[in-house]
Write a structure and sequence with these properties.
Number of helices: 16
Radius of gyration: 22 Å
Strand order of the largest sheet: 1-11-4-3-15-23-22
Shape: globular
Helix content: 25-40%
Length: 489
């Protein structure tokens, strides 16, 4: 069976998996889940203490339907292949998803000239899109600015709980036998001819048949450690404002502007759970750990989003934060390494890691099978997780009246019970920090941002992690990673 493995750092263990995946973000975990259905040995290493701890924990949550992708590209193919699967996937994995639609707004003649071109691109990708103006625009986007000249309405755009998603991918992979080694960084490798023969981490050595580099912002450093291609991944910081669900009642769908070379720019996004995200901006940084926010940056994000929706009211703001997403050239580096015959690079996936993840895992699985990995199915492999809908899912949940923990609400804002928190700390890939509990349950992510419930969450967490409740780590245990910043709702 798989599971969280925390060996003594003094033991130089050696393992020989068929596939070693480096990185446990949304891309790495989706690959792990797809491979878990094969009768092969798979291991995942992740330098952070939990899955989804870097780019995956602070992004838009948009499940793109493929309207804006470059036609004929692998990115477009995988996003389109993923789009129609979200309803089924969310049901099987217990991850909230909503198909809310998107309206792109043009405010100038130059921007308006781009609308037909974008509509043609959507059509080339097989995605429904409608040019709207006047009364039609007001009907599909009643919350949009009346100053917009024309818009493009894409009804199939969706939003997903992208923070919970990699956790769910990893939990299913673990249940099917994949081993996860968390808090373990790659520090070197050995080669035999033209392939990677050994990967050295801070705790063990791996002698894999195939290696998959899905390390996100750190993919260039991992490639260097494996003596693969020399490329650069820049951390592109995006600053966000989170508005609570009361304001979310007035935001039925996504609003965005005409894209530039830095992407779509700030957007107004209803989240899968009913709150609203405003952002992000885009700033390329030299440091890969700078998740700080700036007063000027947040003010700019708000102002640009108020152009899309003048009614945005920051008195409903409950949080500001920043996330980092990987940016490189090319932006979709998916394929075999030119320098190592058994190294698959899955890097530079800046904005569509979540959107393409359902199909990405299967694509990498098929690439590995074509290279000789066994295609035999794993006997007894599961394709769904057992879960009881929590109170925050639909307002009533599936709680047993006989379960006192299920009736004990710890986080009133997000309707998280003691049972939810205990479960998050007992799963095969358990939370080991308050942030980890939040990713799994949403506790501390509501209007009060933990002011009322943090002590209760910390106390229950400390029962499993040891130490006093006030010593329970917010994010990365025994480090300063994430200080001053928490994950988003």
């Amino acid at each position: 069976m798989g599971g969280l493995v925390v060996p003594s750092p003094m033991v130089a263990e050696v393992e020989s998996p068929d596939v070693l995946i480096i990185g446990a973000g949304v891309v790495g975990t989706s690959i792990a889940m797809a491979l878990s259905h094969l009768d092969v040995d798979v291991a995942v290493v992740e330098r952070r203490h939990d899955v989804g701890e870097e780019a995956s924990r602070a992004n838009s949550g948009i499940a793109n339907c493929g309207w804006s992708m470059r036609p004929g590209s692998l990115e477009a193919e995988l996003v389109q292949a993923s789009s129609g699967r979200w309803e089924d996937l969310s049901t099987r994995l217990g991850v909230k998803f909503r198909r809310v639609g998107l309206t792109l707004l043009a405010f100038t003649k130059d921007e308006a000239q781009q609308i037909p071109l974008l509509a043609d691109r959507a059509s080339s990708n097989g995605v429904a899109a409608e040019i709207v103006e006047g009364a039609a625009l007001e009907t599909v986007a009643p919350h949009a600015s009346p100053d917009a000249m024309i818009g493009l309405f894409v009804p199939d755009e969706g939003v997903v709980d992208s923070v919970r998603l990699p956790v769910a991918y990893a939990e299913l992979a673990e249940r099917n036998g994949v081993r996860f080694y968390l808090g373990e960084a790659v520090i070197g490798s050995s080669r035999s001819g033209d392939h990677v023969s050994e990967v050295v981490t801070t705790k063990r050595r791996f002698r894999p048949r195939f290696v998959v580099n899905a390390a996100g912002v750190g993919a260039d450093q991992v490639s260097d450690a494996l003596e693969g291609e020399n490329f650069s991944v820049t951390a592109r910081r995006g600053q966000w404002v989170l508005l609570d669900r009361e304001f979310g009642k007035s935001v039925p769908s996504i609003l965005t502007g005409v894209p530039t070379n830095l992407g779509h720019g700030p957007m107004v996004i209803p989240t899968a759970h009913g709150s609203v995200l405003v952002g992000p901006d885009a700033e390329d940084l030299e440091r890969k750990d700078d998740r700080s926010t700036t007063i000027a940056g947040i003010a700019d994000v708000v102002a640009r989003c108020q152009r899309l929706m003048p009614a945005i009211d920051t008195t409903f703001a409950i949080k500001t934060f920043a996330g980092l997403r990987p940016h490189s050239d090319p932006t979709y580096r998916v394929g075999w390494s030119d320098k190592s015959s058994n190294l698959l690079q899955v890097a530079g996936i800046r904005s569509t890691g979540v959107s393409s993840s359902p199909a990405m895992g299967e694509h990498i699985r098929d690439v590995l099978i074509s290279a000789g990995l066994s295609s035999l199915p794993r006997t007894g492999a599961r394709d769904s997780l057992d879960y009881a809908r929590p109170l925050w899912w639909d307002g009533d949940g599936e709680r047993s009246a006989q379960d006192p923990l299920g009736r004990t609400v710890i986080c009133a804002c997000e309707k998280v019970t003691a049972r939810d928190i205990h479960q998050a700390l007992q799963d095969p890939l358990p939370a080991t920090s308050i942030g980890g509990v939040a990713r799994r349950t949403h506790a501390t992510w509501g209007r009060c941002q933990g002011s009322a419930c943090l002590s209760g969450v910390a106390f229950i967490t400390s029962l499993y992690t040891g130490g006093a409740a006030w010593e329970t780590p917010m994010h990365e245990p025994d480090s300063s990673i994430g200080v001053g910043e928490t994950s988003r709702a």
